[in-house]
Amino acid sequence: MHADNQATPVASKDAGSGLQYLTFSLGDEVFAMDIRTVREIIQYGAMTAVPLMPEFVRGVINLRGAVVPVIDLQSRFGREVSQVGKKTCIIIFDASKNGEKTELGLMVDAVSEVIEIPNAQIEAPPQFGASIRRDFIRGMGRVSGGFIVILEPERALDIEDMALLVEQA
């Protein structure tokens, strides 16, 4: 476990606009999440496995003395467990539970950039055909002639929902 993971500061968190999103990839797909929930991005490093956890919980890391669970986002979406590559990193973000914030780490294949997506360029989640559960999707951002899936972290990474999965395992 490394407490000295090199952190990448996150771009300006303009709390008023809500239009800035951190984009990242899982395989060939690009996803985004509201930058205001992102605390930092760290390099993938050693972590401690926790027994009896579902496959999508990769383990915990020591982040400046705090124990932070790391979720394999690919696996959380019901896919194969992610393979660690040169660009694999962990997005540290604030998850909410009953109004309280908890730090979680998201293991992703690579972080791309912070982009602005105007509200007018965000469409409703598709009714069918999405590669992940519809309730995990906040919207579809139109960017450069294509779409980026904007995650709804309160649903996709709901702590109570994940805890129920652990209890059922």
The gist of it:
This protein has helices at 73-76, 153-156, 159-168, and strands at residues 7-8, 20-26, 29-34, 38-43, 57-63, 66-72, 89-97, 100-108, 110-116, 122-123, 137-143, 146-151.
Fold and architecture overview:
The protein is mainly beta and 169 residues long. It has a domain of 114 residues: OB fold (Dihydrolipoamide Acetyltransferase, E2P), CATH 2.40.50.180. The chain is built from three helices and twelve strands; from the N terminus they run ββββββαββββββαα. The strands form two sheets. The chain has a six-stranded mixed beta sheet. A six-stranded mixed beta sheet has the order 9-2-3-12-11-10. Strand 11 and strand 12 form a beta hairpin. The longest helix is centred in the last third of the chain and has 10 residues. The protein is globular, with a radius of gyration of 15 Å. The two termini are 26 Å apart.
